[in-house]
Amino acid sequence: MLADAESNGSSASPSRQSASDTHIQTSTSNGIHKTPTAPKGSTSPLAPSDKPLYFGHNREEVTRLLIQTLADMGFEEAAESVRRESGCELENPTVAAFRNSVLRGAWEDAEDLLFGAVAGDDSTLGGNGLVLGRGTDKTALLFLIRRQKFLELLERKETTQALVTLRTELAPLYQNSEKLHFLSGLLMCDSTEDLKAQADWDGAQGRSRHALLTELSNCISPSVMLPENRLAVLLQKVKQSQVDSCLWHTQSASPSLYSDHSCDRNQFPTVIALQLNDQKGEVWGVQFSHDGNRLAAFGNDDAVTIWGVPFFNVVRTLGDHNEGVANLSWSPDDSMIVTCALDKYARLWNAETGELLKKLDRFGEPITGCVWAPDGRSFTVSSLDKKHSIRTYNLDGVLVHDWGKSHRVQDLCGSRDGRWMVAVDDHQTIHVYNGITRSPEFEMQMKVRPTSVSISEDSSLLLVNKQDSEAQLIELATRSVSQKLLGHTSGKYLIRSAFGGANESFVLSGSEDGNILIWHKNTGAVVERLPGHAPRANAVVFNPTNPFMIASCGDDGLVNM
User: What sequence ranges are listed for the domain CTLH (predicted)?
Assistant: First the structure.
């Protein structure tokens, strides 16, 4: 389904920098720091003004945000000018010293600065350190700092010193043996990559120190220590709020700050512009390449058909299958495809030439799914074969690892960052694994048989379609259901659902009644119910690079665009 339209709204200028584009750049100084005139506070009174409020906002708060933002953007002289004219200080020098200590990894200095004074009645600055307010869990803050120290020692292969830190600094803080047991287990990690994967930590050179600083600063009053990049965060929240409330969001570019954001329903893909009938028999699934330039379809035909986009001419046919193809997966760079066939073989293809590169060893049951490693050097396939239900292979077709699972797998998905691997068995259980270490994370009993699973682009949400005509969005980190999606019909056959659209704002699904359902991901509201196929719409996907293009397929043998 195509909407012949360009992106509406203002596009971001190349010179414009958004918080999401830059990961919100962090200045180690968090602005400029001058000796305050007030001995205990972080700010001085603003210059006299006949307007105590700025459009209902506290003038001092707005001024400090401006000083911080100007300094973070590199406009030091402008920030200093605002400071002088307003008489408002950004932070006390002690706060700057604490911030720099955390970002430099000077852990003893950070502890001294954080706990260098006796806690008072409020969160202010003391003469020799930061004063924490009543109710602050000092032990928890110490644990966070020393945990970071412990992990960095392990990262540097200083195992002996890490063990000393664990025994003499971390162990006395907590009676929670489970936490300490987990940390002690990290001493056995074979590599830095294994450490980062098991600890869910990105290293000293990643964002871990900044994340720690943010967590620690939450225990200090914002009137003393501004959260990092506060104005950028506020602006990003405003943008995201407008995107979240945009029912027919089709603008991939970050919204402009100059005007309120909205998208026109007329530009949303709702009309069938083209029907492709090159597949023979039922079509069970469609998949765009990651760059959106090709579309592959599979079903009970013995061949996979690949069309070029946007003209949809057949550019390749992958034959050599028997009994139909149940699934396929494009490699991260779109150069290869793995097909999962009912004839119990998985096949690796050159997507450019159509050459069969490898035909893997025969499984005992049909192949049901495939997930590529983020680096594209290996892939994992699933099967209904209980003896070999999940196996990982390299590009030479050599078995790298048999996961040793005894449950059958009817669908498999993985997160883009490699963190999660999710398998659905043929009963009512979803098995969640660490995709890097291949160790089990947790299981979810659904009470109703799931049919298909997929993971959002940001690796945070699991989409589960179920036989009771309900789809669910589950937060992988907390295992909680964040959204229930209703309106489609499903039964014993596999109906595929997917994330998609601009900024992945939507969830789509086929339906047993032939319709196509599109929900707004954040609200769960049905945005569109479109006629699709007769008798059944088996799958529907957005083009990952074109929010105006949808492809669907069904038992009628058609692929609709």
Answer: 91-161
Output the CA–CA distances (angstroms, integers) from residue 473 to 416, 422, 501, in the order listed: 17, 14, 16
Cis ω for the linkage preceding 310 (within 30 of 0)? yes
Place of tokens 């030091």: 76
Give the CATH fold of the 277-560 domain.
Methylamine Dehydrogenase; Chain H (2.130.10)
Return the HEC string of 246-281: CCCCCCCCCCCCCCCCCCCHHHCCCCCCCEECCCCC
CB 473 within 8 A of CB 505: no
Closest among 538, 536, 540 to 550, alpha carbons compared: 540
Q: What is the dihedral of CA 453, 456, 458, 459, to 10 degrees?
A: -10
In the block, residue with structure tokens 């799914």: 369
The DSSP bridge partners found for residue 275 are 560
Question: Of 550, 506, 536, 547, nearest to 299 (Cα)?
Answer: 536
pTM of the model: 0.73
Please state, as a whole number, how many other Cβ atoms lie within 10 Å of the Cβ of residue 109. 16
Dihedral of CA 471/475/480/482: which sign? negative
Tokens of 50: 């006949």
Least confident of 120-124, 191-195, 409-413, 554-558: 120-124
Alpha carbons 382 and 376: distance in angstroms, whole number: 17
pLDDT for position 68: 93
In one-letter notation, the amino acid at residue 261 is H
> Collapsing DSSP states into helix, strand and coil, what is residue 457?
coil
Sheet holding 294-299, edge to edge: 283-288, 294-299, 304-308, 314-318
Q: Which two tokens stand for residue 391?
A: 């196996």
| Largest separation between any pair of C-alpha atoms in the chain | 82
* Cβ-contact 122, 133 below 8 angstroms: yes
Q: Dig out the tokens for 106 from the structure.
A: 């000077």
What are the b/e assignments for 291-307, b being 16+ CB within 10 Å? ebbbbbbbbbbbbbbbb
Look up residue 314 and give its amino acid. V
> What does DSSP assign to residue 167?
I
Mean pLDDT value across residues 530-546? 95
Beta-carbon neighbour count of residue 556 at 10 Å? Answer: 19
> Considering only CA atoms, which of 365, 398, 397, 394 is closest in space to residue 382?
365
Summarize pLDDT for 427-452 with one digit per residue, the tens.
999 999 999 889 999 999 999 999 99
Q: Is 205 helix (H, G, I), strand (E, B) or coil?
A: coil
Taking the C-alpha atoms of residue 555 and residue 561, their distance in angstroms, rounded to an integer, is: 16
Q: Which two tokens stand for residue 424?
A: 């659905």
Find, among 452, 413, 446, 454, the residue nearest to 427 by Cα. 446
Q: Token match 């339906």: residue?
A: 511
User: Which phi and psi (to 5°) does residue 264 adopt?
Assistant: -85, 135
**Helical axes 230-244 vs 59-72, angle rounded to 10°:** 100
Domain with CATH 2.130.10.10 in the chain: 277-560
Element (H, E) at 46: none
- Could you read off the pLDDT of 333-391 as tens digits, one per residue? 999 999 999 999 999 999 999 999 999 999 999 999 999 999 999 999 999 999 999 99
